[in-house]
Amino acid sequence: MSDNGQELAAGQLRHWQSTYTARPGMYGEQPSAPAVHAAAVFRAAGARDVLELGAGQGRDALFLAREGFTVQATDFSAHGLEQLRAAARAQHVDERVTTAVHDVREPLPLPDATVDAVFAHMLLCMALTTEEIHGLVDEVRRVLRPGGVFVYTVRHTGDAHYGAGTAHGDGVYEHGGFAVHFFDRDLVDALAEDWALEEVHAFDEGDLPRRLWRVTQARPR
Ligand SMILES: C[S@@+](CC[C@H](N)C(=O)[O-])C[C@H]1O[C@@H](n2cnc3c(N)ncnc32)[C@H](O)[C@@H]1O
Prior knowledge:
By secondary structure, this protein is of the alpha/beta class. It contains six helices and ten strands; from the N terminus they run ααβαβαββαββββαββ.
């Protein structure tokens, strides 16, 4: 990124914290379509525990817990995770949900080969450099058990906001205070190197609409 990446990241953390404080339930209480799909994929793979990255206020972590998975939900926004924990208690799934404040630019706080599945909806396309995204996917691979599945979604270069707003370099554009790294297909393929790439599915979400890819890849046994 052409700007100071640390400054952009710190600004994004402040922005997510204040957004979640101002807008409880900003993504609604229903699970996202990718989470519903991921639950079916994870169940078919025999997964029991799921690590969610960028869980935010928890619409998907809570759904996965209601579906019977044990969920470790992480995000760099403590405010989002506080709301997630309160909702987990209200829904009586708090025994199956743990939270950890974690910035994905740091190594994942888990030992090697200790989770069955990883889910990340619109997290890899945050204000991360290409190098940081590669580092994160290497970390996901490290913590997954052999045969474990990773389902992630990202906004891509077909999105209406691609190229709009403030350009930060390395595919990152900031619009309305939110910085997004718009993925191209080469990046998706590069991140699947040494994985079994099972699916790249295009879909829309929201009113804009956001244009996304849902990617499913497995760590080979
Ligand atoms: C677009 S929101 C999606 C939230 C949630 N996955 C959902 O769909 O409801 C992106 C989330 O990623 C989090 N995030 C952004 N950058 C992050 C980082 N470097 N480390 C950890 N979380 C981050 C934000 O706080 C926010 O909760």
